[in-house]
Design a protein that fits this description.
Order of helices and strands of chain B: EEHEEHHHHEH
Largest sheet of chain A: 3 strands, antiparallel
CATH topology of the largest domain in chain B: Butyryl-CoA Dehydrogenase, subunit A, domain 3
Oligomer: heterodimer
Helix content of chain B: 40-55%
Order of helices and strands of chain A: HEEEEHEEHHHHEHH
Structural class of chain B: mainly alpha
Shape of chain A: elongated
Strand content of chain A: 5-15%
Radius of gyration of chain A: 22 Å
Number of helices of chain B: 6
Structural class of chain A: alpha+beta
């Protein structure tokens, strides 16, 4: 895994990066992901954020939540996620007939209706990815509370990074609202507990989206 | 050297997964010593890959708009809707404000992505230093809004699962929705494979 010739980063040795210009230890440098500009990191005041001087991208942001607070949020999100998936989202009524849909009902219907691509995309972005994200994050945070790295920390953190753009719960909630309005023209529409749970989940996801998980690398120590 | 040096000028490299700063490795297949992710100075084959994904997405976007995405059957009558006709129907019968949201997600956002990524690719290939900060901002915006285009796909899926009253009323998905879903996924991959750092690699911009 390690590459010969650049073992400097783990040690954070001041002079390793020094090229005349930079005297700060490697750990105190921030490199903008959008333009490659090097910045010096500094402690942030509440509410403060650092933006790249060259391209304006967000480099770092102050966080109110510690690992324990984040763990509480993840557990809340897990409970809400279960509710959102067990209860139907919407029920339609036409005369005496009723028809309701859950997320999995939707996924299975799309599979049967020869739209397997949509079925797979929905199952991945609305169920498997969000669920795995919460479970992995919960696992990592459980250990991070004591400043430790959970077993499998590095591969989990890499997976979380790559899963990041592929959860679409917020989009589904908006889609459910649009569906309700569209169906209201023809049917009696009743919003079920599932949709409220999804609303809460969206709120939690919004809070989470502002958190840069990379700081868990700095907040934890590898087991010696 | 300018006041804000860039990483490759200092011979250092930042891990794109965990943010660790380390000395630029000699070989091509180096891994981050902290998290184990592959270290690249720039995303590999960024421009070619982004062009390929973007063109593929655009090709799929045509049937996604031309073909109907959903069929509504009611008492034996079949009514096929494309993305645009769905927006119009929502405007007329439901709520104009939601129609605007759906129109934005299904038409404005994908078109913006095609235009913005196309512009970024062309200007980057020409080493242009035109409006660099604004272009950087545009790229970040495209990354944020991209996945909202999936809205119409989920609407069709949910309505299909909900409206199941047999002869009285039934909704079926039609091939347009599959093309549209694929378009969204491909544009997401396209914006991920674009490396915005290449914009700043051209002539000296300071």
């Amino acid at each position: 895994m390690s590459t010969p010739g650049h073992g400097l980063a783990g040690t954070g040795d001041a002079d390793d990066v020094a090229h005349g210009q930079v005297r700060a230890p490697a750990a105190a440098l921030l490199i903008c992901e959008h333009c490659d500009t090097v910045h010096r990191s500094r402690p942030l005041a509440p509410g403060e954020e650092i933006r790249c001087v060259r391209c304006g991208a967000l480099l770092a942001r102050w966080h109110a939540l510690d690992a324990g607070g984040m763990l509480a949020l993840v557990l809340t999100a897990l409970i809400v996620f279960v509710i959102a998936n067990v209860w139907p989202v919407v029920t339609l009524g036409l005369g005496a007939q009723q028809s309701s849909a859950t997320l999995w009902g939707m996924i299975l219907t799309m599979w049967e209706q020869s739209s397997q691509v949509v079925s797979v995309v929905a199952a991945a972005t609305l169920f498997f990815f969000p669920l795995n994200k919460m479970l992995m994050l919960g696992w990592v945070l459980l250990f991070a509370r004591d400043g430790r790295r959970a077993p499998g920390f590095a591969p989990i953190m890499r997976t979380l990074h790559y899963l990041q753009p592929w959860t679409m719960t917020e989009v589904f909630v908006l889609g459910a609202l649009v569906s309700i309005v569209k169906a209201r023209a023809y049917f009696d529409v009743q919003a079920d507990p599932g949709i409220w749970a999804y609303g809460v989940l969206t709120l939690l996801i919004t809070i989470f989206s502002g958190i840069d998980l990379r700081r868990l690398w700095d907040a934890t120590e590898p087991d010696a | 050297m300018s006041a804000a040096p860039r990483a490759h000028e200092l011979g250092i490299i930042g891990c794109h997964v965990c943010g660790l700063v380390c000395r630029e490795p000699a070989g091509d297949d180096a891994a981050c010593p902290r998290c184990g992710a592959a270290l690249h100075r720039r995303k590999q084959g960024s421009l070619g890959r982004t062009w390929a994904l973007l063109i593929a997405a655009f090709i799929l976007y045509i049937p996604a708009n031309v073909l109907p995405i959903m069929r509504t059957m009611s008492l034996g009558d079949a009514d096929d809707n494309t993305i645009i006709s769905g927006v119009v129907e929502l405007w007329v019968k439901g709520s104009p404000s939601l129609a605007v949201i759906v129109f934005t997600a299904s038409i404005v956002v994908p078109m913006t992505k095609f235009l913005v990524l196309g512009t970024l690719l062309v200007t980057t290939q020409r080493d242009s230093d035109w409006a660099l900060r604004q272009r950087a901002k545009l790229y970040r915006a495209v990354e944020v809004i991209g996945y909202w285009s999936m809205l119409d796909v989920f609407v069709v899926a949910l309505l299909t699962a909900l409206v199941r009253f047999g002869f009285f009323s039934q909704v079926e998905p039609l091939p347009g929705v599959v093309f549209f879903g694929l378009t969204v996924i491909l544009t997401m991959f396209a914006s991920m494979s674009f490396d915005p750092r290449l914009m700043w690699d051209g002539p000296d911009h300071d």
